[in-house]
Design brief:
This protein has about 80 residues and is mostly helical. About 55% of the residues lie in helices and about 0% in strands. The protein has one domain.
């Protein structure tokens, strides 16, 4: 299964639009245009098809964690370590 297939399945399972995916990627500080994202969701025989790299999938999954759980709490630096 390719990264493109994983992204397609996640989009359907989460009922995300392209805008939702862009927002999730933005939470992981990763910028992508709607055109680039659309190329990932095309059939692999389409002339504008673009393979989904590991970086895009990784950032989407990291952004999804933030989207679902919220941002990571800041570490308290005043506490003494034992």
């Amino acid at each position: 299964m390719s990264n493109n297939d994983i992204m397609k399945k996640l989009r359907v399972a989460l009922k995300f639009t392209d805008d939702d995916i862009i927002k999730v990627l933005d939470l992981a500080n990763f910028r992508i245009t709607k055109t680039e994202l659309g190329a990932i969701f095309r059939n692999d025989d389409h002339p504008n098809f673009k393979p989904c790299g590991d970086q895009i999938l990784r950032n989407f999954l990291n952004g999804l964690i933030i989207y679902k759980r919220g941002p990571k709490p800041a570490a308290n630096t005043n506490e003494k370590k034992p």
